[in-house]
Structures are given as C-alpha cells and as structure tokens.
Design brief:
This protein is α+β, with helices and mostly antiparallel strands. It has two domains: 71 residues, Ubiquitin-like (UB roll), CATH 3.10.20.30; 73 residues, DNA polymerase, domain 1, CATH 1.10.150.120. Helices cover 36% and strands 15% of the residues. The protein is built from five helices and five strands, in the order ββαβββαααα. Strands 2-1-5-3-4 form a five-stranded mixed beta sheet, covered by helices on one side. A hairpin with a 2-residue loop joins strand 3 and strand 4. Helix 2 packs across helix 3, helix 2 crosses helix 5 and helix 4 packs across helix 5. It is elongated, with a radius of gyration of 15 Å. Bound molecules: FE2/S2 (inorganic) cluster (2 copies). One FE2/S2 (inorganic) cluster binds next to loops.
Length: 150
C-alpha cells in the first residue's frame, strides 16, 4: 500500500506493508538517524515529530500518518549541532544514540514553551532515556541552552 506524507518539508510516497511501523518505514527508506532502541515504546530513541509533537515512531503505524508532517533531525541540523555543544560541555553526549531524538524533543519543547522551568524540562525529557549519562546532565545542558547560557 502507499502512504503520502510530508517528510522534512518534502512530499513523499512510501510503499509499505500493512501493519508496518513508522520507525521501520523511515529506516527502510534510508532515514537512519531515527534509532531503534527498545522497539517497545520505552526508550524514546525512535522519537520523531508528527505535526510538531514528539511521537514514538516504533509505536505508530505508518498508514496512520497519511497527510501528516513528519520531522526528523535532518530538518533541524543547525539547531541540533548547537545543542550538542551544550550536551558535550555537560558530559551528556557520549555514544550519541539518543542524541537525534533528544534534539527533536528539545525543539518541540522550545516551540511549545520557550522559557520552561527546570521541572518542566525534566518532565518533557523523561521519556527519552540515555543509557550512557542518565538524564541529569542532559537536563543541565537543555536548561543552559534554552536559557542562552554558555
Ligand atoms: S525504540 Fe521506540 S521507544 Fe524505544
Ligand atoms: S549518549 Fe549514549 S545513549 Fe545517550
């Protein structure tokens, strides 16, 4: 079957199997920045934005995104690069497996709430696990990034 949607600003048509999940469809079509971690809605590594909202692509049927807008980290490369400098300074960027998903979540947070409290940051990031560093140092980095502190 065919699914038409917008990926990072471009209209695309994917040929998929019924029951296929968005994570697999994206990766099968070369979008390898979207990571497969637990494949069970528990780690956040597969997060993309669907119509601007953080969405676990391992738990969304590709057929359900017909006509929607999907964003992966490719569409916010400059922002992700800037954020990664903050992560590095806080020791929150090690293997990098979680980084693309986190950059998308931080982008969504910034759009939704440009001046979040630390508690709001921690709440927003809670679904995105980092096996290397935990979440404390990422929260520190995001707090500084959104607060414009170097
Ligand atoms: S791979 Fe989707 S939540 Fe872990
Ligand atoms: S830096 Fe390794 S999982 Fe986050």
């Amino acid at each position: 079957m065919e699914v038409k949607f917008n990926l990072n600003g471009l209209d695309v048509i994917y040929h998929i199997q019924p029951g296929e999940y968005l994570l697999d469809s994206l990766r099968n079509n070369g979008v390898k920045s979207v990571k497969k971690g637990c494949n069970a809605s528990a780690c956040g590594a597969c997060t993309v934005l669907v119509n601007g909202k953080p969405t676990l692509s391992c738990s969304v049927l590709t057929a359900s995104i017909e006509g929607k807008k999907v964003m992966t980290v490719e569409s916010i490369q400059e922002e992700a690069g800037e954020l990664s400098e903050y992560f590095a300074k806080e020791g929150a960027d090690q293997c990098g497996y979680c980084s693309a998903a986190l950059a998308l979540v931080v982008h969504a947070l910034k759009e939704e709430n440009p001046h979040p409290t630390r508690e709001e940051i921690d709440d927003y990031l809670v679904g995105n696990l980092c096996r290397c560093t935990g979440l404390q140092s990422q929260g520190n980095a995001v707090e500084k990034y959104l607060g414009g502190k170097k």
